[in-house]
Amino acid sequence: MTNLYFNEEHSILRDQIKKFVEKEIVPFGDAWEEQGYVPRELLLKMGEFGLFGLMHEEKYGGSGLDIRAATILAEELGQSTFAGVTITALVHTNMASPHLSLAGTAAQKEKYIPDIVAGKKITAVCVTEPGAGSDVAGIKTRAVRDGNEWVINGSKIFITNGVHGDIYFVAAKTDLDVKSSRGTSIFIVEKGTPGFTVGRSLKKHGWKSSDTAELFFDDVRIPAENLLGEENKGFYSIMKNFQHERIVLGAMGISEAQKAIDITLENVKNRKAFGGVLWDKGVIREKMARAQSKVSIARNYVHHVAWLDSQGSECIKEVSMLKAYACDVANEVMYDCVQFHGGMGFMSESPIERLYRDSRVLPVGGGATEVMYEEVAKRM
């Protein structure tokens, strides 16, 4: 079917990623779920394949494409059914490393981006704290200037790629005498810096092949040049990057919902019950048709919003609506898909069970649904 929001280059990219997912991810995902993280070997392959540089500048090894390419990446990774793998990659490509692209100096970009694009260095963004989830302005981690260094103290939680990452973009308060949103800065902290430790690897309800950490900063000293962007302007950088983060999360969720429909459709057309197959029951057909309608509409809106962003539109309201609606739809669809699998849908060996539990965090991460609708309301 023709898609007005994408071109031939995008179609080629989608086909390439689809083949990569089928060959390099699907056969091995179960093992990665068991070990709790994605192996560096896969991440290096993704780098070699060009998947980590889609939106980075060409002079640093990237492709220089816009958010539509990242949307395709999120959708095709979502088809794997292993959301832990998907989020490991998307945090690196569209949630953490873009801070460097958007605010980094030429020296910082030259130092880090080539290895980021190649998958040799994996990134994490460190904003969330125990007392400040979606409330970015409420963070407590502190950074104080001391001569030619910054000294960071505090903690972060729920950090994807936190255990096995290499480069961390850390938000910290740098001015306590101004409004919260005006006194935050972002810093580049490398693994191995004295005082920077991984407290523990967190066990999760879903996304099991994604490593998630609690991090501690105890008098962590970094060079002054590791300040990323302008001092006290980090809040605005975080807010700006949330746009792309929310688009790819919406794309990821809707792709996974479509995969759940496809799996469930095959199941109900073959599963015999009550003298026929489940697909013979009108209630099943209606619910499946409703699910497909919601997913198709949401996917079209994902593509529309990605296109708006690619045209330079300031589409905060649209992105917020997308993030909230798409992630809620994904959860609604997953619920019915599990129901129609019967007892097998509750078994951990079933892909539909994994898709179901993995989808639950989508309305939470990257801005809770309630926060998203508040952003919409502000602009109505």
Care to describe what's here?
There is one protein chain. The radius of gyration is 21 Å and the shape is globular. The strands form three sheets. Strands 1-4-5-8 form a four-stranded mixed beta sheet. It has a four-stranded antiparallel beta sheet with strand order 2-3-7-6, covered by helices on one side. It has a two-stranded antiparallel sheet with strand order 9-10. The protein is an alpha+beta fold and 380 residues long. It folds into three domains: 111 residues, Butyryl-Coa Dehydrogenase, subunit A, domain 1 (Orthogonal Bundle); 110 residues, Butyryl-CoA Dehydrogenase, subunit A, domain 2; 143 residues, Butyryl-CoA Dehydrogenase, subunit A, domain 3, CATH 1.20.140.10.
Q: Main attributes?
A:
380 residues; alpha+beta; Butyryl-Coa Dehydrogenase, subunit A, domain 1; Butyryl-CoA Dehydrogenase, subunit A, domain 2; Butyryl-CoA Dehydrogenase, subunit A, domain 3; 4-stranded mixed β-sheet; 4-stranded antiparallel β-sheet; 12 helices
According to CATH, what is the topology of the largest domain? Butyryl-CoA Dehydrogenase, subunit A, domain 3
Structural class: alpha+beta
The side-by-side strand order for the widest beta sheet comes to 1-4-5-8
Main beta-sheet annotation = 4 strands, mixed
| Order of SSEs | HHHHHHHEEEEEEEEHEEHHHH
Distance separating the two termini: 34 Å
Percent strand equals 15-25%
CATH structural architecture of the largest domain: Up-down Bundle
Overall 3D form: globular
- The overall pLDDT average reads 95
Number of strands: 10
CATH superfamily of the largest domain, called what? Butyryl-CoA Dehydrogenase, subunit A, domain 3
The top level CATH class name of the largest domain: Mainly Alpha
Helix content: 40-55%
Work out the radius of gyration: 21 Å
Indicate the multimeric state. single chain
Low-confidence stretches: none
